[in-house]
Amino acid sequence: MRRAPDARPIQARSQVAGAATVTALLVAGLWTQEIVDTFVFGGQLDRYGIQPRSGNLSHILTAPFLHAGFGHLIANTVPLAVLAFMSALRNISRFLAATAVIVVVGGLLVWLFGRGGSTHLGASELVFGYLAYLLGVGWWERTPAAIGIAVVAGVLYGSVIWGVLPTNPVISWEAHLFGFLAGLLAALWLHGRRPRAR
């Protein structure tokens, strides 16, 4: 009797390809935006960052995708790509939902509680959000895969958690802190209800 072919390797390859595609589109979009902003608009698109309690509230949707120059973008690109890929690896729909929570909830908290008289922007809100999301999924889901990914994320980027503290006046530690909290909220919402053991 012939055994049916195992579909798991095909499914795994499909998940990897999907996560890589979503991550590549995200990073390419950020770089395209910064190139256009720099060479076409002269950096004027940065005004669509978050200006706490005074700027347009809709800027919470644009701020994580803007950067104050290429140096800022370069600093965020690698951790964003790694953590976004790891977050999207298991389920792209949940990754997109988590991204929406991080952008909206994290950005709203920055708008409400961030330092006034300043503009907050940059993908570091997403970086901290994805890190917290991966750690939260490992904690609430507690499957071997989720725990393994959380451990890898923690080993690679756990040290950045210090960025939630106000150590540098030109860095938006508020976006780091509230992005991290929003990532935990996304993990709780999407993975916090484990089935009961019978």
The number of helices is 6
The coarse silhouette is: globular
How many distinct domains?
1
Residue-averaged pLDDT, rounded?
92
Structural class designation:
mainly alpha
CATH topology: Rhomboid-like fold
Give the H and E element order.
HHHHHH
**Main sheet: strands, sense, barrel:** none
CATH class category = Mainly Alpha
Strand content: under 5%
The tally of beta strands, per DSSP, is 0
What separation lies between the terminal Cα atoms?
Answer: 35 Å
Task: State the helical fraction.
Answer: 55-70%
Supply the CATH superfamily name: Rhomboid-like
Low-confidence stretches: none
Please give the radius of gyration in angstroms.
18 Å
Query: In CATH terms, what is the architecture?
Result: Up-down Bundle
Structural notes for this entry:
The chain has helices at residues 8-39, 70-88, 92-113, 124-141, 144-157, 173-191. The chain has one domain: Up-down Bundle (Rhomboid-like fold), CATH 1.20.1540.10. The protein is globular, with a radius of gyration of 18 Å. It starts with 7 loop residues before the first helix and ends in a 7-residue tail after the last helix. It has 198 residues and is mostly helical. The model has no long low-confidence stretch (mean pLDDT 92). It is a multi-pass membrane protein. GO terms for molecular function: peptidase activity.
Summed up:
It comes from Deinococcus taklimakanensis. The protein is mainly alpha-helical and 198 residues long.
Core attributes:
0% strand, membrane, transmembrane helix, Rhomboid family intramembrane serine protease, 198 residues, Rhomboid-like fold, mainly alpha, globular, transmembrane, 6 helices, Peptidase_S54_rhomboid_dom
